[in-house]
Hints:
The structure holds two protein chains of two kinds. In chain A, the strands form three sheets. In chain A, strands 4-10-9-8-7-5-6 form a seven-stranded mixed beta sheet, sandwiched between helices. Chain A is an alpha/beta fold. In chain A, β8 (269-273), α12 and β9 form a beta-alpha-beta unit. Chain A is 46% helix and 14% strand. By secondary structure, chain B is an alpha/beta fold. Chain B is 36% helix and 15% strand. Chain B contains 16 helices and 16 strands. A seven-stranded mixed beta sheet of chain B has the order 5-11-10-9-8-6-7, with helices on both faces. In chain B, α7 links the parallel β6 (265-269) and β7 (286-290). Chain B starts with 33 loop residues before the first helix and ends in a 30-residue tail after the last helix. At the A-B interface, α3, β1, α4, α5 and α6 of A face α4, α6, α7, α8 and α11 of B.
Amino acid sequence: MASGQQWVLVEMVQALYEAPAYHLILEGILILWIVRLLFSKTYKLQERSDLTEKEKEDLIEEWQPEPLVPPVSKDHPSLNYDIVSGPPSHNIVVNGKQCINFASFNFLGLLDNERVKQKALASLRKYGVGTCGPRGFYGTFDVHLELEDRLAKFMRTEEAIIYSYGFATIASAIPAYSKRGDIVFVDEAACFSIQKGLQASRSFIKYFKHNDMEDLERLLKEQEVEDQKNPRKARVTRRFIVVEGLYINTADVCPLPDLVKLKYKYKVRIFLEESMSFGVLGGRGRGVTEHFGVNIDDIDLISANMENAVASIGGFCCGRSFVIDHQRLSGQGYCFSASLPPMLAAAAIEALNIMEEDPDIFSVLREKCEQVHKALQGTPGIKVVGESYVPALHLQLESSSGSRETDVKRLRQIVDYCLERQIALTLARYLDKEERFLPPPSIRVVVTIEQTTEDINRAASCIREAALVILK
Amino acid sequence: MGRTNPVKNPAINPVTNPVINPVTNGNMKIHLNGNNSAAWQKNGFRNKLQINSMTNGSGPPTGKRLFQGPESFEQAPMYVAVMTYLGFGLVTLFGYFRDFLRAVGLEKCHIAKERDEQKDFVSLYQDFENFYTRNLYMRVRDSWNRPICSLPGPVFDVMERVSPDYNWTFRLTGKTIHNVINMGSYNYLGFAENNADFLKTVAERTQQYGLGVCSTRQEMGNLGIHEELEELVATFLGVESSMILGMGFATNSMNIPALVGKGCLILSDELNHTSLILGARLSGATIRVFKHNNMQSLERLLRDAVCSGQPRTHRPWKKIMIMVEGIYSMEGSVVRLPDIVALKKKYKAYLYLDEAHSIGAVGPTGRGVTELFGLDPSDVDVLMGTFTKSFGAAGGYIAGKKELVDYLRCHSHSAVYSSAMSPPVTEQILRAMRCIMGQDGTKIGQTRVRQLAENTRYFRSHLQEMGFIIYGNDDSPVIPVLLYMPAKVVAFSRAMLKRKIGVVVVGFPATPITEARARFCLSAAHTKEMLDQVLFDLNEVGDELCLKFSQRKYTLRPKVPYHNNNDTDFELGR
């Protein structure tokens, strides 16, 4: 073999000698050409024209930003708030007018409950007001531990976690679990804090029509087909259904038993927002799960705020420890915010005591709701939106004028008419441009157990009068 | 140290003299020139020590400076970084080993399990996400979330916990460790107090109003006392108008989206708080990050942004907003506000200043960093702050021009969708703010502001003298003491608790991996005896655990005397 190779080499050298000159010149030119090709750029670079310092200065000089905020006209409908002087309880003073409150979510009347106040005062004397730190850094008080324990027991779940602000609760809970690439199926009527939580999670979001289980199942099926195409991805894609127990925007209840069926059929976890239904629905105020008799363990996470029925501040999530405990390191609103002032936690504990001792208040509330719902029927030009047993209803215009602005104005006139006659109502407020699906304009009517039959009749007749006068 | 940390190493930082007199530094005019930096390199200090002088040559001359001190970020010797990485490596290896033991069933797995019914669902957590929690955090988690059962004042009572299973579960023994000195709470001005006389009005409001509001500001929750507080906040800050919210975190995350949006650019300091980052992300604006407190980095971004406009389309940006904090709670550094204001004016950007830790805590009369630098508050477009810290309450504010606040009152997410502030909390802020402003007819507030500054200087200078590496500005009441190694972090926290001192320790991921630290938050309510006790114990623990990493000599520094300003009847709340 070796001698063979040597022979080839010798032959090559010999061939070089024997080759004619033109051949050598040609080969030389070819080699040079290759070298040139190697070192030259085969494409033409874009003309680079760096700005000179002078040009940069000119650009900086010329650039005019938009103003920080666009000007707001003085009569913007949401610029001038109604002013409440004194406590926002059953008897409320709005814009200097003594009224009966049909606007605050004080369903159980716990806001001016003496027992709650006394507990809060006792806490104030011991702990002062603020906690001066997040939960991790000496912001965990015995009161917080007690409240978490009590909430878990009240809801009959393994664990509960409290947040210092209602809005931050579900808005922090969703992104703690659902990450980029995960899929969330959401009801179109979901409230704003859910929308913000979803946005923070950066997951894929699929909206289904409000309370429409067929539409949800259609989306789930679509996803199933998608998953079969790419099973590897499907194995790591978490799926969630996010619904509200009692929708604040539509005043109706989610079909929870159907959702649970879909959950097991398509292996999707359910997150349930119960801010409006906690302390309202169910024989003992445990919310939608109790209302429907659904096993609470079938719901992966329940979140609610303590700013409505509980009449304090803050929110909580509850469920199995496997799920909830994760938020203690991953819930942004939990880790990076000061903890709930102890006196507010103490008030919430006392509210739970009252709710546990006297479960009749829930049936009283239900009766009142039905009373109000019935009394408001047949108001000319107005339709009552919401289930009959729901304490936060919406009054919408039967026929829209075609312009949202005009509709809002007319509804506001009704509110003002009632305010004049000592019935405090309020418009349901939204950020028109921020809402994913903007609900139609409406007046909120809130039922509390403190409202007497007389109050309710007066309010209903007042609204009827107003509708007659304003809507003609 | 192998890795020069870009955060604390602005290489072109103009510093002339390693021995800087803390008092006169603010008035020294320092120019950036080659000779200085050459000399700087020659003396060999550069890799070990950076002093971020507050006077920075990059911007045009700015307003007069009052008494702000220098900022220092000393780097530890190389072996510390090596040991730190080694420590993490060892723990990680051990973690894998234990995971293996758990997998083969030799070790009991304590972690909560998924229900059997849902075993075939997609796993809720990723495994690597949990590795850190399961194997590192679990071993040491007794250093955090310690429950307390008293006022979070200068001393508090910690509830004793024991863990039968190496921190997987805790059991409260029912015993209380009394009178632990509190070096962790953000109680800067000592308004976390339960003196009945001071809290009289708060109790009255509770009795009158109850606790909640049960509605949003725009609907039926706009109470008279909210408007009263908004006016007071505006007066306190010296701006036209202000708006308050029920939660500090939400003040950022719910208002930034109302101010900027698509087509806008946010320039954010790399160490900004999560709430600012969340708000920026929710806004939909483009976010670019500049190096911590580094004006060169910020200016480069600003120049680039104005000159080349939006990516791809090259349309000019609609607005550019710079987002910074007053005092950075993990670094103890103070924002270089004069330089930022100069840059913002030059490039017509807007400035969003988060004063969560600085309002009340710095400035001769507690008005925050604008006052510390002697700047006009109207130079800052959006002033944001919280009431959780200096005011001993909860919530936050946004303040500025009337147009800004009017716009936010209509378009802020918080005004429309979140519950209004609790009346007793509102009253607490009102009373604390009136006290600082002297409207209560006493000098208590101002005494406390001075006392805090005094305590800060006293404590900082002694720590440095002992040889600890501490970060941050001389005026900052937040004092990070560097511990570096993960094992020392926990040992330190436990040893200090044993000596009845409650400290906060933080490590990865809240800090860079090699820079775990303990954080001391000073309060005007700390007495000299308490501080001396803490310093004494720190000195001993520091020797015991070998925590004195500093290679600087502080003998040149004049000893800071302690003047007790407690000439009024300043209650400590116990």
